[in-house]
Write a structure and sequence with these properties.
Chain lengths: 101, 182
């Protein structure tokens, strides 16, 4: 079978791509996609290690919880982005520099 | 190199290449659609890690739910956003992106260094798990076990996450409605 190191390398690369998107993008939705990429890298690690826990399924179970958490995060974040767009007419995180008015 | 390893390399390559495309493209709609491909390839990787139920959940929730949500938010956020984004015509690697690239590459070097030092396949608990025959075999059907575990051993986190999901749902609905005050 495939060794754990292979999975870890793939997820490390995905995490760094997500980190790059998080830092460099000028669009809140793309920043959100970067966060999703990082979350998916973490879930890949959980799943890869979860292979060695057949009785309790620790890794797979918390991978499921992480997926559900990601769904909740995205729903709230998109609602916030829509509100921010309504207020500022832009979703560039660098241009949102006032707390109110 | 047998078929499983070949599939792993194909899936890993698709996931990484489409993620790189998502990170590098200027067109946001295209990057959202490429993110579909990344998520499908990741679901394939989950199957190869013998977690078929997680893979199906990934496809149902991520591809069916989250991405459609992102697309909706993007299409609803107005014409101006689309125009602003497509107007930027910059070279492939602009000067402003260099700190971000540097940060990501250095972090990748640190993490890869750590991965190769830790040598995950020879960890003590992994070896013990193989010794006790506690690893998942390729022909095992794990969905039933997951269901039983979810209702017994992991009942408290399950309930906590269901309450959290409820709160997030109410919060998102409250945040995204039109404010009557202004």
């Amino acid at each position: 079978m495939i060794s754990l190191t292979h999975f870890l390398v793939v997820s490390a690369c995905l995490f760094c791509i997500g980190l790059y998107m998080l830092v460099s993008k000028h669009n809140a939705i793309q920043v959100l996609i970067g966060i999703e990429l990082m979350l998916n890298a973490a879930i890949l690690n959980l799943v890869a290690f979860g292979k060695y826990d057949r009785l309790n399924n620790g890794g797979q179970m918390f991978a499921l919880f992480a997926i559900v958490l990601a769904a909740a995060t995205t729903a709230v974040a998109l609602a916030i982005i829509l509100n921010v767009y309504r207020q500022y007419k832009t979703i560039d995180p660098g241009k949102i520099d006032k707390l109110k008015e | 190199m047998n078929l499983i390893q070949f599939l792993f390399y194909v899936m890993g390559f698709i996931a990484l290449a489409s993620a790189l495309f998502v990170a590098s493209t200027k067109n946001v709609v295209r990057s959202v659609f490429m993110f579909f491909i990344t998520l499908f390839a990741l679901a394939g990787l989950y199957v190869l890690a013998l977690a078929d139920f997680v893979a199906i959940t990934q496809i149902v929730i991520y591809v069916g739910g989250i991405l459609v949500l992102i697309l909706f938010a993007f299409m609803l956020s107005g014409k101006e956003t689309l125009n602003i984004i497509t107007q930027q015509r910059k070279p492939f690697i602009s000067l402003g992106k260099i700190p971000a690239i540097l940060l990501a590459v250095l972090f990748l070097i640190v993490v890869l260094n750590m991965i190769f030092k830790v040598d995950a396949d020879n960890l003590e608990w992994v070896k013990r798990s193989i010794g006790f025959k506690n690893e998942i075999k390729p022909d095992a059907a794990m969905t039933e076990n997951i269901g039983v575990n979810l209702m017994t051993w992991y009942l408290l986190p399950f309930e906590a996450i269901s309450i959290l999901l409820m709160i997030a749902l109410v919060g998102a609905a409250h945040l995204s409605r039109k404010g009557e005050k202004q």
